[in-house]
Design goal:
Blueprint lengths: L2 H5 L1 H11 L1 H4 L4 H6 L4 H9 L7 H21 L3 H20 L7 H20 L4 E8 L2 E8 L8 E7 L10 H8 L5 E6 L4 H5 L8 H14 L4 E11 L1 H12 L5 E5 L7 H6 L2 H11 L4 H7 L17 E6 L7 H10 L4 E6 L10 H16 L9 E6 L5 E3 L9
Parallel strand pairs: 3-4, 3-5, 5-6, 6-7, 7-8, 8-9
Antiparallel strand pairs: 1-2, 2-4, 9-10
Helix pairs in contact: 5-6, 6-7, 7-8, 11-12
């Protein structure tokens, strides 16, 4: 834990008690729905929460209810209904385990076991189109879920689904089916160093190993007969937009990148001005107990800076105008450094979760990747800029907020 997260924890409790989840992440419910959370489950959880300490109990309570209903439907032969409920339960068990920044905590391992059980059951009920993946990496293991289209598939495009720093591979269970496998695209939702099971099994994140983990996942995908090795892209949310940028700059097997909410500016904004839980979580992910060492050895070296100039594949960036983790001016400056075919969309009045446009963003990102992997958007010098207004209009040719002018 950090000094700020301990000293300011009471402010988060007040925010949760008075404003619920929206007080911490404005309009984030829209994004959570894209990540497999049913809005009724979400409301039930936060009806039980008056402080941060109550979150894991609330998530576990409602997760257990969904899992129990899933098992009842499974016993009665309603496979699809059961699979849907197992999906809802899995993402909630994932939220429950996230609250514990100690891999040895028995609650963390118990909730993780519940999530794994739910994924196993929904995979079985859906005919094996969701499969667990465990790969050796740097003396440890990294974990992922493979999502396959139904029926025979060969040489299909594939997309790596990268979770944000406080997300897990299960968060893409619903989106993988809705936006990728239903369109004949293979999806691989991953946990890189520092995330989920990968962190719980000892692999922490450092300055370069996340992109090397993406390369390891690329090795895996290129060996699958279902996948066309020349058509593999990546969709990244938040920190995976950052990590995806690093991966695209260092491994040219990535044929396209769609990155939303990517922290592309200084990391002081995230770790010193945003909610203190971000820094506490990243210190856990990186295996640091000493805050000063973390600041000196990791934070100072995290910004992308000129690294994005090494990206060669088509890239799409999307960000909220008031993203609390990356000032828009810094995001626009980073975009200027990209020399590959590129596109940026700035969403008016949106914050980091992009909750008000989440359904659009998930669909658009998937369709953009599908087209990019089919050969679109590769023209040298391509530079498409958009400012997406809250009232439905889009200003094309500039991503700068019109009120700046």
């Amino acid at each position: 834990m950090t000094a700020r997260s301990i000293g300011q924890n009471w402010t988060l409790d007040i925010a949760l008690a008075q404003g619920g989840f929206d007080a911490l992440h404005p309009e984030a419910k829209g994004t959570m729905e894209q990540l497999g959370h049913d809005h009724t489950d979400f409301d039930k959880v936060f009806d039980l929460v008056k402080s941060g300490a109550m979150l894991p109990k609330a998530w576990a309570t409602i997760a257990a209810q969904a899992q129990e209903r899933a098992a009842e439907h499974e016993r009665n032969g309603f496979a699809r209904t059961a699979a849907d409920l197992y999906t809802r339960a899995a993402v909630m068990w994932g939220r429950a385990q996230y609250s514990f920044f100690d891999s040895a905590d028995p609650r963390k391992s118990a909730f993780r076991a519940r999530a794994n059980h739910c994924v196993e059951r929904l995979g079985e009920l859906r005919g094996g189109v969701v499969r667990r993946v465990v790969l050796d990496f740097d003396g440890g293991q990294i974990f992922a879920l493979l999502h396959l289209p139904t029926g025979p598939v060969r040489n299909a495009p594939a997309v790596i689904l990268g979770p944000g720093m406080d997300m897990i591979k299960e968060d893409y269970l619903a989106a993988a089916e809705r936006y990728y496998t239903s369109r004949g695209v293979v999806a691989l939702s991953i946990e890189g160093p520092g995330q989920g099971e990968t962190r719980a099994n000892g692999v922490t994140v450092d300055l370069t190993n996340y992109e090397r983990a993406v390369s390891r996942y690329l090795d895996y995908l290129t060996e699958l007969p279902e996948v066309d090795a020349q058509r593999i892209g990546m969709f990244g949310i938040s920190m995976s937009g950052y990590w995806g940028s690093r991966a695209a700059a260092t491994d040219q097997r990535l044929a396209a990148l769609a990155a939303f909410e990517a922290p592309t500016g200084d990391f002081q904004t995230i770790f010193e001005r945003a909610q203190p839980t971000f820094k506490a979580n990243y210190m856990y992910m990186a295996g640091y107990d000493d805050e000063a060492s973390f600041d000196r050895e990791l934070v100072a070296h995290l910004p992308l800076d000129a690294l994005v100039a090494d990206i060669t594949c088509p890239v799409l960036y999307g960000i909220g105008e008031f993203d609390e983790l990356t000032p828009l001016a810094q995001a626009l400056a980073n975009y200027e450094l990209v020399r590959a075919p590129k596109e940026i969309r700035v969403y008016e009045d949106e914050f980091h979760p992009l909750g008000g446009v989440a359904a659009e963003v998930f669909r658009f990102g998937a369709e953009w990747l599908e087209r990019a992997l089919a050969g679109d958007f590769h023209a040298p010098g391509r530079d498409a800029r958009h400012y997406v207004h809250r009232d439905g209009r889009t200003t094309t040719g500039s991503a700068t907020p019109t009120w700046w002018q």
